[in-house]
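Exercise 7.
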Amino acid sequence: MDKIALTAGTLYVIVLLRAGGTFAVGWLAGAGARRSRFAGKISSAKFRRAERAIQRWGAPVVAASFLTVGFQTAANFLAGSTRMPLPRYLPALLLGGAAWALIYATAGLGVLEVLGRLFAERTALGLSAVAVLLLAGSAVVVYRRRGAAPSSDAAADVN
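Solution. The predicted structure, written as tokens, is:
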């Protein structure tokens, strides 16, 4: 249990620094954009309405973003760039970060322990499990890249 507590604590500090830093970078980027040539576009009524919605309702989105993969950084950056008030942001960061750290500490350590036992007791099975995980990860990457890239038929239609 001490291993899980230490891992969760370490991950919690990491996620607070990373997500809080992303929020700060977003805050600075938003301040810079407000002083740039984009100031007119981001001061429109529609943008201000969206900004108010994020400031009011964005905290649950920020907290829930820690339970997703690939959305955390965007949520924290947008919360900062739209100047979500700290009294709304910090509880979301603390709660979401704690959930993230606990999930990754328990599930992550569990997976590592299972793989360690597989390698110790049945090396061939352990190597097979790692190979399957790598192939599955590679398949996901290839699938996403093919979905994002325009097909050759679509390119021919454009020309």
